[in-house]
Amino acid sequence: MKKIILGLLVIFLLIFMYMSLVGDENKGSLTPNLISRIKYLETDSVAGGTFREYGQEAKSVFEKLSSHKDVVTKKDFLKRKFFEESSQRDIEFVLDDGKKIKFKVLFFSMKPYFDEAYVQRIGDDSIYHLNKEEATDIATQFANR
Description:
By secondary structure, the chain is of the alpha+beta class. It contains five helices and seven strands, in the order ααββαβαββββα.
């Protein structure tokens, strides 16, 4: 019995070590030269289907989403997500080599303008705060699309 438990413990330890070494493919650092490599962004359309934005507009959105520094706790994020009026949008950026960088953006208080938003890059545990101006700029690019 001890050998079985020891064997399972070793297996779980090896799996944990593998997962921590390999990590998530999206977990790379966001460098300034990524902005020039963005081909387009993709997001769900409110009318159904997929909305794509090319060129400078996509680069502008990426720059706004990736330049924030104010970290939010997971507790605050979940509390606001479930107890306040909010809207979530997934935004995926496609680079010139086909790699994708994905963000989840949660917008709050949608009348008449967005008050603020929280943004999280898929593969990163940190959640960041966007102020009213940044949130409104990003949200209006996707309004009614």
